[in-house]
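User: I'm writing a tutorial on reading structure tokens. Could you give me a worked example: one chain, its sequence, then its tokens, then a sentence or two explaining what the tokens reveal?
Assistant: Sure. Here is the example chain.
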Amino acid sequence: MTTGLDSAALAPLPLRSRPARAAMSPIVKASAAFLLLTVLVALLADWLAPIHFTTQNLAARLRPPLSESGGMTYWLGTDQLGRDILSRLIFAIRTSILIAVLGTLIGAVFGTLLGFVAARFKGLVDQGIMMLVDAQAAIPALFLALTMLAFFGNNILLFIVLVSIDGWDRYTRLARGLVVSEQESEYINAVEALGARPVRVIMRHLLPNIVAALVVQATLNFPGTILLETSLSFLGLGVQPPGTSLGLMLGEGRRYLLNAWWIAVFPGLTIFLTTLSMSLFGDWLRDRFDPTVDRR
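And here are its predicted structure tokens:
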């Protein structure tokens, strides 16, 4: 029978104290504001877009920004089929952000799970998982994605899975290292000595103390995931028409750079600002949660 003292000891232990809060510089605040705006645009795309992104008006094709046709103002111009660039850009942001978020989450969960398994079982299991990690790190994600698409064809579910392969090895390395370090802590030894099951140790004690590092890694990995999605769509292997994404818009606009620059420039600028903002915000999060950073 478990005593009252044992039950108290098995209760979740308080998280380790966080390092001093890192001040947000103006550029980090601007990055966070831009990311928030991007998320809002993705969530409210149906209400923000002036017209549906597939609506065509051949009489207004290749119109420059701020032009008018048929009583409608095309704020960012039109493309080669007379489709409104602003509407397409809004829905492209939704598509690219959704694919990148799902890909990042899948890669993070899969990589973290493998890291926990490697740290807990050790031996041959650990060696086998780390061999997979080394193999993944040696193969460029874009090359692997192109190979898989060539063999299995293109569909949205496979595309999301392929986007998620970018960076799962980093989560595995990080989770494994953190769990191995935490397992040597006195509080973990005490909890295990009191008979706590491995699942309870992981979910109630280990995971809460390493989740901050995993979140930081996700923010740092997110820009690479967006670039992989946009690269595949740019090559025509990602989102297919009549759908839209930032990479697809960029690919369609490259043939019109000389006489209709706005088709490619606006989605390209959105890709640049999104990845830059997430990188800056991820660096700030790393400084915020990393206790080894000197803030004096």
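What the tokens reveal: Residues 1-5, 7-11, 13-20 have pLDDT under 50 and may be disordered. The chain has twelve helices and two strands.
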